Amino acid sequence: MLNDILAVSGQSGLFKLIAKNANSIIVESLETGKRFPVYQTTKVSTLGDIAIFTIDTEVPLTDVFEKISKIENKAACSIGKGASNDEVKEYFEDVLPNYDKERVYVSDMKKVLSWYTILQGKEMLDFEKKEEVAAENTEQVKAETKAKVAAKPKQTVTKAPKMTKTAAPKVTQKSMPRKAQ
Question: Are 1-49 and 50-130 the same fold in CATH?
Fold first, then answer.
């Protein structure tokens, strides 16, 4: 769902992957629709690869977006760009109560909330599809596993014949050729 949506370092907003070249990728801004190249030296992250630190583990960004969607009843985020840091922290605690307060900064929280608003405005967040796809994938994997097991012939193990040890010929002084003097 979010693997084609990119966050580009040094650029605000989100971008959609359009094409790949040898030295760059072509992206399109979700907000303006403007296309431009992003070169190899620029740090680019897909939203599918981003996770939020919690005390126990890391929570994928898609799960965070899903929790925000449930809180907002599938509407845009109620916290705007002009919200104070305390308001953002309080809202984020409602979304993800066990987030790591030392490693998740307010700027990260604001970025996540703005990304949610952008994706929600473009109607790119469909969590019901995610559940359907996951269920289909699970059924497909089960069917493939059954097919592989059925198609795989039963292997019989044959033992190699036992090797008997034979002693090497004993070398003695008498049996060795003499050196020519």
Answer: no
Q: What was the pLDDT predicted at 35?
A: 94
Q: In the chain, what are the domain boundaries?
A: 1-49, 50-130
Fold adopted by 1-49: SH3 type barrels. (2.30.30)
Backbone angles phi, psi at 29, to 5 degrees: -65, 135
- Is the pTM higher than 0.85? The answer reads no
Rounded to 5 degrees, what are φ and ψ at 81? -65, -30
Q: Is the distance from CB of 54 to CB of 96 less than 8 angstroms?
A: yes
Cα separation, 5 vs 126, whole angstroms = 14
- Tokens matching residue 12: 């605000």
Q: Which residue has the higher pLDDT, 74 or 114?
A: 114
Count the helix, strand and coil residues of the chain and give each as a percent rounded to the nearest 5. 35, 20, 45
- Give residues with Cβ within 8 angstroms of 116, minimum separation 6: 65, 68, 69, 77, 125
CB contact at 8 A, 59 and 66: no
What share of the chain has pLDDT > 70, as a percent?
69
pLDDT in tens, 40-51: 999 999 999 999
Report the CATH number of the 50-130 domain: 1.10.10.1650
d(CA 2, CA 110): 19
